Amino acid sequence: MSSDPLKAAKTCELHVHIGGCYTVDDLIHLAGPHADQIDWSIYIESYQDAFDIQPEPAAWIRRAASGDEAAIRSIHEHYVYTEADGADFARFMAKFSLALATLRHHYQIDSYDDCIARAVDGHRQQGIDYVEFRAMAPCGIENPERFIDFHHQNARVIAAACQPGFTARYVPSIPRWQPLDAYVIVRQWLTDEPDLASSVVGFDFCHFEEGHPPRTTRDFFRRFHEDEAALDGPQLEILYHVGEIYFDKSLESAMRWCHEAAELGAKRLGHCTALGLDPTVAVARQQNAHEVELVTERIDQIDYDLRLRAELEDAGVKVDVRALTSEREDLRSLAPEASVRNTYDESRLEQIRRRQDFVLAKLSQCNAVIESCPSSNMRLGSVPGAADHPVHRFLDSDVALVLGADDPGIFASPLAAEIDWVASTTSLTTQQLARRLGDPRRYACGAGA
Ligand SMILES: [Zn+2]
Question: Which of 4, 40, 128, 350 to pair with 295, CA 20 to 30 A apart?
């Protein structure tokens, strides 16, 4: 790989979740000795619900651990998430539950450290020399001790895995439904554990975004910025998945969410498909896609358009102040849980393209970084074809951009394969792509690489 112009991009992973790192081989290794003790019910039940098939994980794992090729193929088929599974998060979670059941068992028998170490080592063996791992605790903060214990184990093992030439960092994920309360607990843990402070480099928002508008994190961001200004320690960063799966709202609102997350102070934005997928393609992905949204979203959109009117108009976006003000008055008389309908004609789609350019330019201005994850978007993000992938639009723009594998194990696609996929589908030459991407380490949290 030494002469590969894309080496810098292939050796620095900035968007990966620990739970998504486990390959079929990893699962056979980790679950093999425990096949009959692991409680597989979460996997069996969710798989049956999602696929209408009853899987037999204990038998597959037991036989696969003794080298049975047919059993190994069964695990591949019922675990690796491919485009054939459809862009269905419930199906993804069902397949993912095979890893989850395995990890939970190790957590219960006090050998979860081995699982974390395997995920970290898998990256080192790929030749990656800088990686930031994220993880969402399997429980919420109603069980604060377990919540912190989970993050503590991850941070401790990741810190211990660092060696000359290999740096790993940890970014705990904060539940979107309780951002401030969870943050306070995690921040207190960091204060209590100064030895881990250099390993924990930020906080992440992930999992379902629908139903969790960025405005619900305002109090969190306010407190976070206050703490960062007051504390004399390494600066932490916010990583924020947004604009990834957003069928429940208009395309304008989905783009606004990306912009709002950056305005609030998120450093890197995960996916932002809404900013890169052509709107004609976006609305054709599903029946009634983006046609309905909550009244509250529409009011937020009107407020946004009025607030940024001058800049939007400079970008060629029409803002009819009188019509919007009148519409807002009408909407305020409706119940917040009421919905409004959207229809998309050619002129609206063209306006949406201008808004995409506008938000991409705004992200560039505030130095926000988009993290694009090729396979993840193709398989989960409802991107219909390689040519439609938002990464191409991002490459054409000036936005700061990094590529990540997201869940390299369950997608069976390590970081280098993700970079090669972009190289093989972009119109740029490999040299041009390498220059456009540069070294992603400059976007690491705290530029700590
Ligand atoms: Zn992710």
Answer: 350
